[in-house]
Amino acid sequence: MSIKFDFNGLFDFNLGKNGVSKKELKKYYGTAKTAYLHLAGLLKNKGARVKLALEWFNLPAQDRKLILKIQKLGNEIAGKYENILSLGIGGSYLGLKAAQDALLSPYYNDFSEARGKRPRVYFEGNNLDPETLTVLLKNLNPKKTFVICISKSGETTETKAAFEIALGWLKKGAGKNYGRQVFAITDPKSGTLRKIVNRENGKDPLAFKNLPLLEGVGGRFSELNMGLLHLAIVGISLKEVLAGARAMAGRCLNPEVNKNPALMYALLHSILHKEKRMNLAILMPFSEQLKSTADWYIQLLAESTGKKFERTIIRESDGLEKWLAGKKVLNTGRTPVSARGTNDLHSIQQNNIEGENNKVVTFIKVGKFKHDLVIPDTRDFLAGKKYSKLLSIAQEGTEWALNRAGRPSCTLTLPEVNGFSWGELIFFFEMATAYEGELLNINAFDQPGVESYKNYMFYKLKKPGIKLEVAKEIEGNPVVKKDKYIF
Ligand code: PA5
Prior knowledge:
By secondary structure, the chain is α/β, with parallel strands linked by helices.
């Protein structure tokens, strides 16, 4: 059984003028077809995939031997250590956290029964707040902890800083072979992390073991590459997750818009964005375990489609396309918000129903939960009712209320949350985001907007190699701080 998509709540027959009409859909079919043909053409071409950072598309079909090797390695690490300290940020963190919360038992770290014989997993290096890492390292036993550092570039400040702190801690507490408790996942050739790995691995081949990231896979699209070791350590079947992603890849390459969920999702949301100014994308799973998947989607949509410039495509002598930032300023992209039912029905939902009508809600529903609860005889309407039933009616009610208020929503239903359906889900969102980028005519696979804060930090921290124009830009344009507005 596969994920089911219900787009009815986005149309005018439910929403009147706020919904997509048949006429509008017809008007955009041509654009959707062009987007499909362009993206599908690129995805089929290895050279184009690698050059344009589209190689993520091929991750579900990765070499089986490599997958088995990673699964085995994960089991070995799990058998030796009580704790995993996973360092990384953005795409080097959010997918792992999403998988962990979706596919493992709730309270996995807290209860040994929930973990089976697997290690606890702690995520760090995703912030520069000193509190959490300090407390964590004070409480973990370095001899029983395995450190995984994930950074595609190997240059990210948050991850590098945490890695240095963790290495110092290991060195002090785990003895001279501490390097054997370290694993790195990074670019095969460049970056500081790669240099450290090569140096330490050269001294002791058992130390700083590593897996390379595949070329042409951007951070936020890389869960099925850099997240695999983590999945293997916690005992998730890589085969199952990849099979789900593969199944969804097939569905999302269907040339018929009506049969291609990712293209349809991207198209309808793009029409609502362009024609009705629906610029907020609220992802609301009715499942506590999928909340982190919604957080993962925030990065995926925001970094992929939040772009200033329209894309200019040029064809190079190798016959492949090159994408450049064009001259036309778009400042586009829907703003993603993650919420969860039913928790956020008591917060954001008021605004969803009565605030500005500028948002589209995507619900994620779960058909069957692993556990259920029956309410005892309370002598009122709740008596004997199942939790799963209440949750389902709450979602239906939210959909109805939005619909009644003329507010668009759509629903994705997972038959149950397991490796296969989760693989399908994340791959669906990756494909939908890629199509949305095509429809906007932007480069969905870079993130130039993230650079300015980094440049500022590097300049202030005196990192060697800062370009003169960057320094001038920072020095010449300070934030104006008037005393009268500081009190
Ligand atoms: O999508 C991306 O490429 C980025 O958001 C990265 O995931 C994020 O910046 C972390 O980068 P790195 O893995 O190089 O440390």
